[in-house]
Amino acid sequence: MEKTKYEQLASDLKKEIQIGYYSENEKIPSLREIQTLKSCSLTTAKEAYRILEEEGYIYVLNKSGYYVQKNISSVILGPQNEFYESVEADDRIQQIMNTVMDPKLISFGAAIPALRYLPIAELHSAYKKALLYKDGFSYGDLQGNPHLRDWLAKRTSMNGYRVSSKQIQITAGCTEAITYSLFSVTEPGDTVIVPSPIYVGLFQILETLRLKVVEIPYREAEGISSTEFEKLIKRHKPKVFLFSANFNNPNGILFRDETKQILAELCDRYGIHLIEDDIYGDLFYTGTRPKPLVSFFSQKLNGPKTFLCSSFSKTLSPGLRMGWVATKTGIQSVSKIARAFKISENHPTQLSVLEYLKRQTYERHLKSLRKEYQNLSHEYIELLTKESDGNLKITKPDGGFVIWIESKLDGDKLLLEAKKLGMAIAPGSLFGLSKHWNHFFRMNVSVGRSPKIREKLILFAKRFRKNGKSKSTF
């Protein structure tokens, strides 16, 4: 879509600020001056400056003029609150994912837990017992097995979001839970606001549902700026906030409760529905299980709807395809949509998962996973940092099992180079619609540790060194 004159002017001025033509806290030309310098109308100049102000590039002092933002480095280092009339990501994503998921490669790219970290023997035993149920091969409850929903409701309530079993819909994984939730509160052409970077699969959902997208960047100091968030709400009037507050994939960020509270209040105030991806919430490294963002909403009957989506894919097994939506305000619409696509979920699998959960080993399993993933994250970061001679900037995750890495090299090209070494990474271009993440990539530490894995990581990390000498003791 062709830019308007004021959008083009704003883009040109942003580039001038980014390259240092105007420095931090420096006064920039007045509206009249920019009108002459850029040969534009006063209206165009005003609109361009409005965009720059909303996106945090400039600020205005009464009776003094416009100035470059004091903390401009935090703005220009991240994506620029981009707006997209449509999403066209599926073909690009599919092409890259074919390499990332190649079974011939050691997949450091796919966010899939290795079999060694899953309770396979216990699940086998649970399946054997579940298959003895007389009604195990019937459709089962259309909303999901009542006993499984009851277990999920109790656990979700313990984690801060109080729901009943009647307020849960079982789905085939977290992606389906998010899709049903989005489907229930949007129509084609509605706008959704998402953080950047974010889980790659969400773009395929947004494209399929023909939704517009606004990307809001993560800021190192506060996660998401509430000021930026409110400005974007006022400007684009989004219908939905699609978000992951606990250990976002790919950067592993955990939001503070204070930030969650502010974001919830803003969504409440402007009537924006929340769809929260909490799939990594149980994989925290330290402290207690963090509350989901939905728990900070007022939950008024006439307020925005909230949906908490998750699954067992990252903790028990991705092949189970067992997820759920918990919602106090939208269960009827979600369940109606679920029934439109299929009569019920896989009943034998639901019974098997329930059998496993009855044995009260889930919490012990999670405790072991958290410790292992924390250790692996530390080891991978230490190894990659040493072997790259410190030329990789790695975001230390607060939970989950992926690490987010910045380098001076193009992520898509790195994917091809990694392939030559017999390994796969996930290039940063997958995790946003803008080109900002082209020099980033994601790695999965759940691949584990072994002499072969260590060898591959060292060879890959040397790519970022000026010489090939190993410095690792890992």
Automatic annotation (TrEMBL):
It comes from the Bacteria. Its cofactor is pyridoxal 5'-phosphate. GO terms for biological process: alpha-amino acid metabolic process. Pfam families: Aminotran_1_2, GntR. Residues 359-386 form a coiled coil. Residues 3-71 form the HTH gntR-type domain. PROSITE patterns: HTH_GNTR. One of its GO terms (molecular function) is transaminase activity. Keywords: Aminotransferase, Coiled coil, DNA-binding, Pyridoxal phosphate, Transcription, Transcription regulation, Transferase. SUPFAM superfamilies: PLP-dependent transferases (SSF53383), Winged helix' DNA-binding domain (SSF46785). The keyword Coiled coil applies. This is HTH-type transcriptional regulator NorG. It comes from Leptospira kemamanensis.
